[in-house]
Specification:
Order of helices and strands: HHHHH
Shape: elongated
Number of strands: 0
Distance between the termini: 48 Å
Number of helices: 5
Structural class: mainly alpha
Length: 128
Amino acid sequence: MSAADQLSEHEVEQIIGRLLQVGVLIAGVVTLVGGVLLLLSQGSTTPSFSTFRGQPGNLTSLSLILKGAREGHGDSIVQLGIVLLIATPIARVAFTLVAFALQRDRTYVLITLLVLLLLMYGLFFGQG
């Protein structure tokens, strides 16, 4: 029996639902941990709202976010949680692409591949 015969449409939907739940849960836990660390390290400082300051450079690159998270910086860990939250629906589309490929549904493979490519383009090149 092939993998396409083993996974019914209902099972694929269940796996996708679980993927979304787990992705959001992990992103939430990571963000919460980062928020607690951020409050512990900077919670007593008074913010200045008189001038706008954009994101620091260490929070705009995935490699720098990962480096800061490994070093235990709360702001980097919060940003990592946000990245994981954004990655969750992208992972869903990628899993759906694999499921359609296993089912040998060429039409949906092409449509899902196009959606995935548009998501990736927007994520990496749609910043301005």
